[in-house]
Amino acid sequence: MKFIRRHALLWLIVIGYLGLGFIYANVIPIFEGPDEVAHFEHARFISDHGALPSEARPGFPDHIQTAGHSPLYYLVGALLILRVDTSAYRSWPRNPYFSYGTDTLGQNVFRHTAQEDFPYQGVSLAVHILRLWSLALGAGTIVATYFLARVVSPLETWLAVGAAAFVAFLPQFIFMSSIVNSDNLVNFMSAVSMIQIVRIGAGRDTTTRGFVLLGSLLGLAQIAKGSALALIPVTAFAVILGCRAMDRRSLLKNIALASVAFFIISGWWYARNILLYGDPLALNWRRIAYPDALRHGPLTFEQVAEFARQVGGSFWARFGWANISLDERVYLGFAIAALVAFVGLGVRVAREYRLPNFPRRELLLLAADILVVAALLFSLWFGYPVGGDQGRYLFTALPALAIFFVYGLMFYFPPAWRWAPSAAVGAGMFTVAALIPFLVLIPAHKPYTPPPPITLAQIPPDSGSAEITFQDAVRVVAYLAPDVAERDTNLIVRVYWQVLHNVETDNNVRLRLVASDGTVLWERTRRPGRGLSPTDQWQSGMIVPDLFTIRIPPDAPVGPAAVVISMSERDGIEWKTAEGETDAVLTNVLIQ
Fold first, then answer.
1. Cα separation of 149 and 444, whole Å?
2. How many CB atoms sit inside 10 A of residue 580's CB?
3. What is the pLDDT of residues 17-56, one digit of tens each?
């Protein structure tokens, strides 16, 4: 009880995190997180077969996308869902109308039904059990961050509180902790390992027991996920910093015993990787599984700048499959806060570096952790650009980043007010994180429903009759557009589609404004119904309204222009009119 009372603020933070995490985990539909379906399939494979998957190639029987990942997260997860009946699982049906960018219909990558809702059963129950496993690991990372900060600067209690709050209420951390993903275990193991790394690097625990503990933690981290490789050079740096006073024989003995502990825990994994992939670290499994996804050609400055932008945004908050974002003003606020914090960090370090209690070696080790993790992230993206620009890959160094963030903000306050930045970080980030499920996630994951059709009687009586038919299945029954338009203004064109027969394909419609000399002045291609009405959901007899806003260029030639309409399947196959043409003139407009 004394321990609990002593760290009461930490437990309050953890409770707040668990409350938010539980909300996130229950408002996000299953598999609507980065690679969540693959992580679930990995744990399910172990639960069903009692063995690790070994094949990552798409199309291969029992293909598991994450087969090259370290197994510890999945082994524990398999035990947790061992008694859950997931026999009904098949490859989860994808949302055929989802795409990255403005052409998507809804933000859900997969289709979802009421069978997934509470009370959870079958596959849904298994996924939510694994999500609770992830939430528990996230709580462990918060606690480890707190005690890492206490090791770095034992006299600054508020530093530990603020760093724990930063991690706990970082929206992206809550999101990742509320889905099935092995990142959560490696984040936890990296945070715990850094506590012992800093203790050794600061010269506080250079005993044999301390080295064996570190070797064991590093071994567990390695079989949590390969990104824990970043801890190895940081450990080497810690030994250099903290063990200079040790005699060589004792140091070599401790290193040898730590190595033995490391290989007892993780050696079997390296041996298996050699047998399967010819590589102890399994770094080449992506090349074996996804050769077409490798980078080709040199990097450009624009690519690096876009990489930095994507990493920055997705570090703070980017949900779904990196397709759900916050308002840009929120990202700007995060960026300003980070800039203020790290300016304060630089000035504070410069001013206090020579003070006797300044944690030089501790902060150097945190900086080394951040730099190595960032370098590992860049190397991943450099070789495998698809998905390699996600800020969550920095989370193995998140405790160090959190400590630096709060440490820098403390510069702006006198000693008696050092609690203020921690309170501001906790309250501010909690507020943002608490609003996100209701203002962002629930609306984004709302099932897509197409706009309702209308009746023939609802078509405006002053509409023009078009009688343009595509593929004997869809007809432009009417249109509404002005006869005269000014340059550098908008021309509103309304189109009314009549469905003659059910359509089996998801089609695009293209509208163009063409000058009398054949010059295309404006063009737009999208689904009908303002982009919201997939044709493969159309049924015979429906009337679907559509609207286009044509922007007439300021330099458009004065004179007549034609509004030309066409329809095609999304793979490019053009539909033809009754006259055998792919384009039809809807109306003519006089540009003045």
1. 36
2. 6
3. 999 999 999 999 999 999 999 999 999 999 999 999 886 6
Q: Quote the tokens at residue 434.
A: 């608490």
Buried b (16+ CB within 10 A) or exposed e, 188-220: bbbbbbbbbbbbbbbeebbeeebbbbbbbbbbb
Burial class (CB in 10 A: 0-12, 13-18, 19+), 300: exposed
Do 473 and 579 belong together in one domain?
yes
Its domain, for residue 90, covers 2-180+306-444
Q: Does the pLDDT at position 549 exceed 70?
A: yes
Say whether both 385 and 470 belong to one domain.
Answer: no
Determine the distance from the C-alpha atom of residue 209 to the mean position of all C-alpha atoms in its chain, rounded to a whole number.
Answer: 39
Return d(Cα 14, Cα 22) in angstroms, integer: 12
Q: What 3-state class would DSSP assign to 31?
A: coil
Do 438 and 460 share a domain, yes or no? no
Residue 67 confidence (pLDDT) = 84
Domains in the chain, number: 2
Distance CA 275, CA 271 (A): 6
Q: At 557, which amino acid appears?
A: P
For residue range 141-162, list pLDDT tens digits in order. 999 999 999 999 998 999 999 9
Are residue 526 and residue 402 in the same domain, yes or no? no
The answer as to whether 518 is a domain residue is yes
Last residue of a domain, one of 411, 444, 477: 444
Q: Torsion-angle region of residue 467: left (phi > 0), alpha (psi -120 to 50) or beta?
A: left
